[in-house]
Design brief:
The chain is 53% helix and 10% strand. It is mostly helical. It is elongated, with a radius of gyration of 27 Å.
């Protein structure tokens, strides 16, 4: 019940009669720790640890939420751009992201590109392919390149 009402507040069990099996069950159901009444000296360290862990969880949750918002902004921006752009792995061999304009400009489905990443090279005008291959090699070597191709 404590996890349902206040999921971010650590819950500790203090008991004089709890058995090991019941203590493990409490931990599985979300208790941060348990302390036996005859060992109350453990209570303060257990509280401190539970509060530190709750703080870490809160920071992680905030970071995940910020990442979700940032990704939503990126996707909204990418959807509004009329040019194709992409994000590739440092090796230049793996596409990590391709903007939605790809489908409109290239007339091919993004899903098809994901299934066959080399497909985009086949769609490039044959005379432009050597320059594109060279640009990929520069990318793989960590160098910048600027290239327009058909």
């Amino acid at each position: 019940m404590a996890r349902e009402t206040c999921p971010d507040i650590p819950f500790l069990v203090v008991s004089g009669t709890i058995g090991e099996e019941r203590a493990v069950e409490c931990l599985k159901h979300g208790a941060a720790d348990y302390v036996l009444k005859d060992r109350l000296a453990r209570l303060l360290p257990a509280i401190r640890r539970a509060l530190r862990e709750a703080e870490v969880r809160a920071r992680n949750h905030a970071a995940e939420e910020a990442l979700r918002r940032s990704e939503a902004r990126f996707r909204a921006m990418a959807a509004s751009v009329d040019h194709v752009f992409w994000i590739a792995a440092a090796s230049g061999r793996e596409l990590l992201y391709v903007s939605p304009a790809y489908e409109h400009i290239w007339g091919r489905a993004l899903d098809d590109l994901g299934a066959q990443p080399a497909e985009w090279l086949a769609a490039i005008v044959p005379e432009d392919r050597p320059a594109v291959r060279e640009a990929r090699e520069q990318l793989a070597a960590g160098k910048e390149y600027h290239l327009e191709y058909r």
